[in-house]
Design brief:
The protein contains 12 helices and 10 strands. It is an alpha/beta fold. The protein has 2 domains: about 70 residues, no CATH class; about 180 residues, Vaccinia Virus protein VP39 (Rossmann fold). The protein has a 7-stranded mixed sheet with strand order 6-2-1-7-8-10-9, sandwiched between helices. It has a 3-stranded antiparallel sheet with strand order 3-5-4. Helix 1 packs across helix 4 and helix 2 packs antiparallel against helix 4. The chain is globular, with a radius of gyration of 20 Å. InterPro entries: Bact_Chemotaxis_MeTrfase, CheR_C, CheR_MeTrfase, CheR_N_sf, SAM-dependent_MTases_sf. This is protein-glutamate O-methyltransferase. Pfam families: CheR. Its EC number is 2.1.1.80.
Length: about 290
């Protein structure tokens, strides 16, 4: 499948207009692989024919299908295990103290893809039932892809998907065989919600989230849109909440609304001007007896 510069530009423009993500030169190699299955399903023989249909606007649903096919939806359970260990060892114990009065936590997984990150979070709580007894744990997963959100909501995965990141004991405990794959048990699905949401839009919940995970999503935004996304995320966080980014991501040079937690590398907190994080963390430590 030959991909001309003009076709690449049209597809890149469509992706950025719908999602804010850039189809950079380093990602354009994926176009053929990403679109080949969709073109077969729709009976479209060539990329030129696909582009013509998109430009003429004859099939609006096709545009969304193309966008969703071009998105990078790579994910798996407990991806890069260290971030989940950080949450379990550091953030969740502190939040358990701070929220002991309300016994409620709100967590947002932004760019959740097909939901493995969200179910991983649910497992963190489900595996410590005594500690979280009586708590309301509200975990929201959002993604710009409608098809990914639908799959995440169902919680059903193939044998290959359910084995990525899960040990055999976790797989058997938290998933049950369903058809030709596995589905998360009802108790794991209960605290979870999913919805379609674009990070460049206002946050999906009026109340502040205690933890926001936005890992390996902002990599595909240009600097201007990345700054806007950070503003949206910051607006959705509780004053003493945390943001977790991917290992190769940072807020440095992108926003002054968030700064690194000096005692937990990989977590970020609201700062207002980027200079109050360390001071406020010290105050929080004294307040909780740390």
């Amino acid at each position: 499948m030959q991909i001309s510069d003009s076709s690449s530009r049209i597809l890149a423009g469509l992706l950025e207009a719908r999602t804010g993500q850039q189809l950079t030169l380093s990602r354009r190699w994926r176009i053929e692989t990403a679109l080949s299955s969709l073109m077969r399903e729709r009976g479209i023989g060539t990329l030129d024919e696909l582009i013509t249909i998109l430009v003429m606007g004859k099939e609006p649903s096709l545009s969304q299908q193309v966008v969703e096919a071009l998105l990078n939806n790579e994910t798996y359970f407990f991806r890069d295990r260290a971030p989940f260990d950080l949450l379990q060892r550091y953030a969740l114990p502190e939040l358990a103290k701070r929220r002991s009065g309300t016994k409620r936590l709100r967590i947002w997984s932004a760019g959740c893809s097909t939901g493995q990150e969200v179910y991983s979070l649910s497992m963190l709580f489900a595996e410590e039932p005594e500690k979280w007894a009586g708590w309301t744990i509200d975990i929201l997963g959002t993604d710009v892809s409608t098809s990914c959100v639908e799959r995440a909501r169902l919680g059903a995965y193939s044998q290959f998907e359910v084995q990525r990141g899960l040990g055999i004991n976790q797989m058997i405990k938290w998933f049950e065989e369903s058809g030709d794959g596995w589905r998360a048990v009802e108790s794991l699905r209960k605290p979870l919600r999913f919805q379609v949401h674009n990070l460049l839009e206002p946050p999906p919940h009026p109340m502040g989230f205690d933890i926001v995970l936005c890992r390996n999503v902002l990599l595909y935004l240009n600097p201007e849109k990345k700054t806007l996304a950070f503003e949206r995320i910051a607006a959705g966080m509780a004053e003493d909440g945390w943001l977790m980014l991917g290992a190769g991501e940072t807020v440095i040079g992108q926003t002054n609304k968030l700064g690194a937690d000096v005692e937990a590398r990989g977590l970020y907190r609201l700062t207002g001007d980027g200079s109050r994080v360390e001071k406020r963390i010290g105050t929080d430590r004294r307040a909780i007896g740390g």
